[in-house]
Amino acid sequence: MPSKEMNLPNYFLADLPPEATLSPVMLSEACQTLKRNRERYLAGRSTHQLVKVLSDVAEAWMKPDNAFRKLVLERGPAETGFSCETLKRGLDDFFRQVTPENLHALLVQEFGNARRLDAVTATEVEQKLSRAAMAVGPEFLVHIAAGNIPNPTWMSIILGLLARSAQFVKCASGSAFLPRLFAHSLYEADPKLGACLEIAEWRGGSVALEDILFGEADCVTATGSDQTLAAIRSRLPAHARFLGYGHRVSFGFVAREVLSRSNAPRITARVADDVVAWNQLGCLSPHVIYVQSGGELSPDKFAELLAEELERREQTEPRGELPASHAAGIASRRGIYEVRAAHSPETLMWHSQESTAWTVVFEADPRFQVSCLNRFIYVKPVKDLTELLQHAEVVRGKVSTVGIASPEHQAEELAAQLARWGATRVCPLGRMQNPPLTWRHDGRPALGDLVTWTDFEMQ
Amino acid sequence: MNLELSDFAARLRETMLSEGRVIRGPDLKDEDGDSCSSSLRNFDALALELFALQFRYNAAYRKLCEAQGVTPGIIEHWKQIPAMPTTAFKELELSCIPPEERTAVFHSSGTAEQKPSRHFHSVESLAVYEASLWSWFAQNVLPDLRFTIYDLRLICLSPPPEQVPHSSLVHMFETVRSRACESADRSFFGTVASDGSWSLDFDAVLAALNSSLVPRPPSLVLGTAFSFVHLLDFLRERDLRFRLPPGSRVMETGGYKNRSRAMPKEELHMVITERLGISRENIVCEYGMSELSSQAYDSVAGDEWRVTGKAVSCHPSPVTRHFRFPPWVRVQIVSPETGQEVAARETGLIRVFDLANVFSVMTVQTEDLGVRRGDGFEFTGRALFAEPRGCSLMMEGSALSLP
User: Fold this and answer.
1) For a disulfide at A192, which of A41, A176, B42, B343, Cβ 3.0-4.6 Å?
2) Quick one: which H or E segment has residue A428?
């Protein structure tokens, strides 16, 4: 949407009217401007100042009368397909976390000391060894964003600012809306910071444009399929650092001990939170909920209760409209499960009437199944976590988050087992798509991976 | 042999033969005001009769109908007949033919990792398939040649039927060959690689194209869109162009599922014209699948008004070429959200009611998206992430599971 219609100034390439085509020359100039601005306005900033700007902007996004928030809630449903309620919750869940305390905790976690990006400093241990160090971010950071949900892109921008990098965010075509409004909010809060950021969108694979970016980049982050990542990596100059985030899937596990009738509403509500958040489109959203057999509530009964909960959610937090091709995917999948259910009691299905808004499929077959998402969730019975992991072998190494509901004393053991198996995050059900700021993306330190260290050995 | 189904099949073949003589014209409306491409006015009665038979003799189908609470006694219109998803042909034996009477089985194309659809046939059901395909093929691809001697030079860009006995498409090509071509020349120019994929014997195709240059009857080139891309890439690399005799024509079909190189339709047709010298109005697209026994075509060869849209008052402009099935088939475009028929010009899933599927399931729910256009439909794409299947396939190229 042209920025005129939204009353936004033309700060970013993504603000240009849709008929404007980007040229390599324009892009090249944009890169030089970003680098210049970084040198002038960003390189010398203190972490303290940056944390203040970021947390102030985040706080503003939480306020009901914030202009950007209002714009998202007003235009977002048409621009992104998410309903107003889903967007509202997504905004709150994300920006609530961007506080000075959490940013501080992130810096300490990554660097051992929150001032590492400001000066040569030392931790206690380092002092004893007469050592100190400083971390320096890349001068020019390029993000190739996938764009089905905005959180990873917002987070990338925040990390890039902390690292004092000039940033170019390339959004997938049609997905710049939410990153762009965040960028505008930064620009409004601090125009000089905003001038170190560029947002553009085009269809991936535009070699002439991307070659310009890649040629200038010191570091490139990208999200996408393994093929996409391999293609990008092969086009980068040798000196550029590449941080690729490939496809990930997530699932849930409900232990039998917590499956009492009194507990069930609480747990199904949490699972519904995870299914509804960003319409299940994130890597951290569950495809399957594994329910341990032998509890007071059977796995298929759990599925039925979950269906009832999803129906309630549809009333308060509707999914929103889908493009025909995606709705058709859901309809087609339902078609096959309807046939299976007609033939065998081992398949059961519940779904919204007269719409594709939500679907719960219970299958006795415990093999992991990738969902078509948009609130389409599988429930499968399983004997225990060990058996679950055998049936999830096909996605081993590609699992991001496992949401669990279990007695407290079991949780740590489950987490250890999942860690050894290769899952990179274990959290309570209900928080899957809402990781803390300090989350290690795909098991890697997201901020730490951006920087280069300079070690200083004292005389 | 099931006498009731046999009787139905025999009557239907009679109908096909007589309908085959009906010349296509502007839209006609049937008794419901539905657009239809001909005067098969007893479609509803035939459909309800066949539904009752399939309900009785196709156990796997009956279970689905019962789960939906639909039985022959309670429905009153063909539109109420329950549809079987194409994917179900992969999991169930959707056939009224007892195993000992089955003589052929057609598989859907797809990658080796997926289970293919299985459409079982007997001698009798193949006869229906052949009558159906030939009648409509002749009307659409060979309209001007229908009453002359067929001695076309046939070039099929597929392996011969004995190498791919499970291809309904190649069975169709072979049926066309046996009825339209008298020459004993080689007609099939494809080969099957060890991984099951098809490729072309380029030298032989070149020889056939070259031999088509001397004054002689027109050529008829049949193949999948992908096989044409394959051939055209080869011709482009060598900078070869042919001008096939006047009246030559092309029928191409199908998409590029999981293929390495896809080419937009318009471009494909331009390059066919450029490299084979066959003009646009003599390029006919087919829409078909192994789960059906009839095909749709997007134009009648040589029929220029269907290409340009000029002088066609009943078509809303702009006219795209749209697919039309024969009179014994009806299409519904249904909303993925509600399962109900969508309004004109809205996109929905294509549901096909094919009477020629006498011995399997008449009503098939495809995973294809389309829009109703006049008396036919336009194919607009495929349902995304429709099929529960191997994770590796879902992970690659899926825009869904991103971080």
Assistant:
1) A41
2) strand A425-428
Tell me if chain B has a CB within 8 Å of the CB of A400.
yes
Q: What is the pLDDT of residues B44-94, one digit of tens each?
A: 999 999 999 999 999 999 999 999 999 999 999 999 999 999 999 999 999
Separation of alpha carbons B82 and B353, rounded Å: 10
Dihedral angle computed from the Cα positions of residues B195, B198, B203 and B209, in that order, rounded to the nearest 10 degrees: 180
Whether A391 and chain B come into contact, CB under 8 Å, resolves to no
Q: A430 touching B, CB under 8 A? A: no
How confident is the model over B124-159, as pLDDT tens digits? 999 999 999 999 999 999 887 655 666 788 999 999
Q: Which residues contact A23 (CB under 8 A, 6 or more apart)?
A: none
Query: What is the chain A residue with the closest CA to B386?
Result: A329
Domain boundaries, chain A: 3-15+22-247, 249-428
**d(C-alpha B365, C-alpha A168), whole Å:** 45
Instruction: Give the three-class secondary structure for A351.
Output: strand
Is the pLDDT assigned to residue A287 strictly greater than 60? yes
Q: List the structure tokens of A81.
A: 């397909």
DSSP A222: E
Q: Over the Cα atoms of chain A, what is R_g?
A: 23
Pull the structure tokens for residue A218.
Answer: 């010191």
Residue pairs between chains A and B whose CB atoms are closer than 8 Å: 148
Answer whether A458's CB lies under 8 Å from A128's CB: no
What is the C-alpha end-to-end distance of chain A, expressed in Å?
59
| CA A260 – CA A292 distance, rounded (Å) | 12
Cα–Cα dist B202/B188, whole Å: 11
Q: B338 at the A interface (CB within 8 A)?
A: yes
Residue of A nearest to B347 (CA): A324
Between CA A322 and CA A318 the distance in angstroms is 12
A284 Cβ under 8 Å from any chain B Cβ: yes
What sign results for the dihedral spanned by CA atoms A382, A404, A112, A158? positive
Partner-chain contact B400 A340, CB within 8 Å: no
Q: How many CB atoms lie within 10 A of CB B62?
A: 17
| H helix count then E strand count, chain A | 17, 14
User: Of 3.40.605.10, 3.40.50.280, 3.30.565.10, 3.10.20.310, which CATH number belongs to A3-15+22-247?
Assistant: 3.40.605.10
| Residues in CB range of B370: below 8 A, 6 or more apart | B323, B331, B333, B347, B348, B349, B350, B377, B378, B379, B380
The CATH architecture that domain A249-428 belongs to is 3-Layer(aba) Sandwich (3.40)
Q: Which residues are within 8 A (CB) of A280 and not within 5 positions of it... i.e. 6 or more apart?
A: A274, A286, A371, A373, A374, A375, A376, A377, A433
User: How far is the C-alpha of A193 from the C-alpha of A160, rounded, in Å?
Assistant: 11
- As a whole number of angstroms, the distance between CA A403 and CA A426 comes to 6
Residues B206 and B240 sit within 8 Å (Cβ to Cβ): yes
Q: Which residues of chain B have pLDDT under 70?
A: 20-39, 110-113, 145-150, 212-215, 255-261, 304-320, 388-403
Which residues of B, range 340-369, sit inside 8 Å of A by Cβ?
347-349, 365, 367, 369
B308-328 burial, b at 16+ Cβ within 10 Å, e below that, comes to eeeeeeebeeebebbbbbbbb
How does A199-230 read in b/e, with b if 16+ C-beta sit within 10 Å?
bbbbebeeeebbebbbebbbbbbbbbbeebbe
* pTM, rounded to two decimals: 0.91
**Lookup: tokens for A121:** 């400093």
Provide the shortest C-alpha distance from residue B80 to chain A (in Å): 16
Q: Looking at the DSSP assignment, which residues form a beta bridge with residue A452?
A: A136
